[in-house]
Amino acid sequence: MVPSFGQLSRSWSGRVGIVVGAGVLGLGVGAFAAAAVGLVKAVVSRPVLVSKAMEMGAKRVVVVPASTKGDDGQVREVEEGGSDGDVKILGVLFDMDGTLVETFGIWATLLDACAKEMGYKDGVDREAYRGVFGQPMEKNVEVFMPGADVSAVTAYCNAHYGEYLDQLQVLDGALEAVDAAVALFGSRVGLVTNCPAAITQLILQAAKLESTFSVVACSGAEAVPATQMLSPRASGARKLRGKPHTDMLDYAAAQLGLDTSECLMVGDTRYDMLAGEAAGCVTVAVEPSPLAHVQLAGIEEFGAWLRHRPRTAGE
């Protein structure tokens, strides 16, 4: 039986109560420490819903597989019925850097070299950059190269990223996670990334994901006319702004024929979670985040989590 949001939230509270209770009842430092270690292991070993999940109460996340309707319009392969209180998910939007591929080292080195090339002698401090990794390019320029031209920095990165491509790492479980999404939702799977389009193409090719996503939305890329978009949030935008703005999510969902409220937003940074929350997605974090509706220990858990969602037919 798949637990509901409410049940998982209560089980989390119960584990906290057990640890605190052990200390209060005087079971000793050793017992208390053992209980605390048990709590940490429980948190890491399986998906646990954190603060944002409380807002969803006892609602279940149920999925509407692409296979639920055949060419004749008849419902097929529905495993479990849904209810009016369910959150029905019809597609997935993945972040890229830090979610599917490990690129922090590449970006830290590349931006440092770019800054020094442009006369910023201190370059980019690696630890300072770690704190803002995943933000749009214009924010990187604002923080580390104030006054520099964003297009010039982007052009430098586009020209030199390939020199570091041998350092690219596909995260364990990433390909399986995307495969699980495609197996369930078919063509209703997209990518939304703050990475420039030219570099995104390089990364997807290197990771063997270039033909996987039905739509790829990159920060700064041209948007379709606002009249073609399902959501008014990007109305009037000539270019797609990076996360935490919702432009890319609105665009990608529209191209998939969905509303953002029918999508999972899977990511690793607060920018992913903030954009997903603002767009109305169910947010899934693969790094610790108090902003997520669903917290996983890593992308390697996503496939199993998705396969164990209850399923229902569409409207």
Automatic annotation (TrEMBL):
Keywords: Membrane, Transmembrane, Transmembrane helix
Protein's name in the database: Phosphoglycolate phosphatase
GO biological process, one term: DNA repair
Record-annotated membrane-spanning stretches: 20-44
GO molecular function: phosphoglycolate phosphatase activity
The organism's place on the tree of life at top rank: Eukaryota
InterPro entries cross-referenced by the UniProt entry: HAD-like_hydrolase_sf, HAD-like_sf, HAD-SF_hydro_IA, HAD_2, HAD_sf, PGP-like_dom2
Natural source organism: Thecamonas trahens ATCC 50062
GO cellular component: cytosol
